[in-house]
Amino acid sequence: MAETAAVQQKSASPSQLAEPAAVALTGLWREFGDRVALRDVTVALSRGRTLAVLGPNGAGKTTLLRILATLLRPSRGEVSVLGASLPREAWRVRGRIGYLGHEPLLYRDLSCAENLRFQARLYGLQDEGAKRAQALLDGVGMSHRAGELVGNLSAGMAQRVAVCRALLHEPELLLLDEPRSHLDPEAAALVEPLLGPAPGRTRVVVTHDVEAGLAEGDLVLALRAGGAVAYAGGADGLSAGDARAVYGGRQ
Amino acid sequence: MSAFRAILGKDLRVELRTLQSVPAMALFAVTTFVIFRYGLDRTTLGGSLAAGVLLATVLFAAILAINRLFVAERDEGGFDVIRLAPVDATALFAAKVVALVVYLLVLEAIAVPIFAIFFLESWAGLAPLAGVLVLADAGLAATGALVSSIAANSRARDLLVPLLLLPLLVPLVIAAANAAEPLLAADGPSYAGTGKWLAILALYDVVFLLVGYAVYDFLVED
Which of A4, A66, A232, A242 is disulfide-compatible with A72, CB 3.0–4.6 A? Predict the structure, then answer.
């Protein structure tokens, strides 16, 4: 296994390779005290493509996503997102990223519609925000619960509203941390057109589902628990067996 | 400005819906007045003792709200929501300060009349006292929002807030008590020296609002 990440593009044409990367990481480290969460990660993801991030619990997947979302600072290395160098130019990308993490980032004492209205106002969306919120709630099958407090919803329903929150401002980059968690198959099918691979949609998707990750990722980054980058390779060259290896062969 | 209004509107809506802060503050204040009334064994208070009882009660009642000020931001990801959005984090600070001022004004609208019924022979000083309380509220809210934000991510926040906040509030309490003392005099209100203490209160407010404005972006960043 390679100790340094070196990611290749699947079926990347020379013109695609020449495009400026939507996400470019060079020698990224993140430490929490003595614990290394990310060690020397190097990745370049072109616009309109998908990076699937695999790895067991504690491998640093969520840490990586939070750094890309400007919510965490890198300890070392260079991070460029949508042409902005992080954390110095975080202000340039805020509002252009759709982040769906483990927490829905919704206020429990506000209704679904109130939460989305609040988000729309933060992003400077006025009338179009309300229309888009309604369309998204329709899309995830939650329009009939729009007036209900988020605190009264099941985890799956809250996740569906969180999908609306992440997409409300039509972000250029989607950062998705196990986006189908809590969702039943029907709900997962509802959110798929909104979150799944699509032409022009740039995504970084954290998943534990090796097969799905290999299938939907133009690039695959596999992280090993303990903070070390265990393997990173193009999907063409990364076999399911290689990917499972970061889980200790258990998947 | 839109972000400020959105956050303030959200906070006031949640408080109206859940009644988590203001009723607790009001209940605390009324209970404290009862304890003072029987503890001091006095039916009337005036001057510095009256100002001290009123301001200490408001101060400790405010700590209840200050402790809760960032609960939703901490527990429900509100800090991340703000940092992901294209807004200045000082909008969050400003909204929290104004929300806290609103809570304090509602508290005082309930507590001051009860205080007057319990302890005051003359109510003539209550109207000018409102000016002192508004200035004290602004300083209390600015300092409280700053300290509450610092303590929000600590497990010892319930201890940290009073430990950090009370020393910072000493100048405010001194100024407010000195401004309120002649207004609550037993023989009727006077305005001797009140202006100087009001100016000090206003200066305190400006300093802590500016400090909050200057440092708040750094406070909410990782």
Answer: A66
Using CB atoms, which residue from B6, B84, B222 is nearest to A121? B6
- Asked if A109 lies within 8 A of B17 by C-beta distance, the reply is yes
**pLDDT over 70, % of chain B:** 100
CB–CB contact B84 A107 (8 Å): no
Interface residue of B7, B84, B87, B88 to substitute, partner A, most A CBs within 10 Å: B84
Query: What span, in angstroms and rounded, lies between the C-alpha atoms of A9 and A15?
Result: 12
pLDDT in tens, B131-142: 999 999 999 999
Flag whether the ipTM exceeds 0.90. Answer: no
| pLDDT classification of B152: cutoffs 50, 70, 90 | confident
Q: How far is B7 from chain A (nearest CA, A)?
A: 8
Query: What would the two tokens of residue A184 be?
Result: 């039943």
Residues in chain B closer than 8 A to A159 (CB atoms): none
**pLDDT of A237 higher than 60:** no
Nearest-CA distance B89 → chain A (Å): 11
Per-residue pLDDT tens digits for B53-107: 999 999 999 999 999 999 889 899 899 999 999 999 999 999 999 999 999 999 9
A66-94 exposure pattern, b = at least 16 Cβ within 10 A, e = fewer: bbbbbbbebeebebbbbebebbeebebbb
Residue A225 neighbours by CB distance under 10 Å: 15
Is B1 within 8 Å of A124 (Cβ atoms)? no
CB atoms within 10 A of CB A212: 14
Quote the pTM value.
0.88
Helix (H, G, I), strand (E, B) or coil at B48: helix
In this structure, how many other beta carbons lie within 10 angstroms of the beta carbon of residue A35? Answer: 11
- With CA atoms as reference, report the closest residue to A137 among A110, A109, A165: A165
Burial class (CB in 10 A: 0-12, 13-18, 19+), A11: exposed
> B153 to chain A, minimum CA–CA distance in Å?
15
Which residues of chain A does B3 touch, with a Cβ-Cβ cutoff of 8 Å? 121-122
Does the structure show a pLDDT above 90 at A218?
no
Six-digit token string for A211: 């097969």
Residue A88 in contact with partner chain B when CB distance is under 8 A? no
Amino acid A157: pLDDT: 94
Residue pLDDT, tens place only, B3-19:
999 999 999 999 999 99
> Which residues 27-86 of B are in CB contact (within 8 Å) with A?
72, 76-78, 80-86
